[in-house]
Fold:
Amino acid sequence: MAFTSDQVLAFLEENGIVARTSQHAPVFTVAESQALRGEIPGVHTKNLFLRDAKRGYFLVVADEARKIDLKRMRKAIGARGSLSFGSPAELQALLGIQPGAVSLLACINDKGNGVRVVLDQSLLSANLVNCHPLTNERTTSLTSADVLMFLNKIGHEPLCIDLAEAGPAAEASEP
Structure:
């Protein structure tokens, strides 16, 4: 049985992970999140649920402003073959959530460690990292240290990489 939003928040509290959660209207995109989040401090994330050609799964978590080039990133994260977005059915089966609620907190439902968590290195220096607690009607703020503690507690060792280096190719045509 998959964790609910309230259960993941209780898990954080039970494990000494300080979380501040804000309620808001449902958001499905970064643009909607930017318009509705109000004054929630910290880095707001975008989350890409991806799969490779051999059905390896990845959850890439980055600053919402980060431009990500899937072709350049695939080697950096150890993908076998090209990357594409995982389906809603795969998202539900592996992380127990619906599209729009994707976040690193959903890894609590990945009992078989079938999803590799990839964190953009820049998140590790952020004072606060914001993510959805299994619903797109809430935003939870955690320190970067607490993000790592959470992932450790659930048995997910993240791959931390500089996505800027795996991002869009240098713009040679710009002056």
In short: The domain at 5-161 is CATH 3.90.960.10 (YbaK protein).
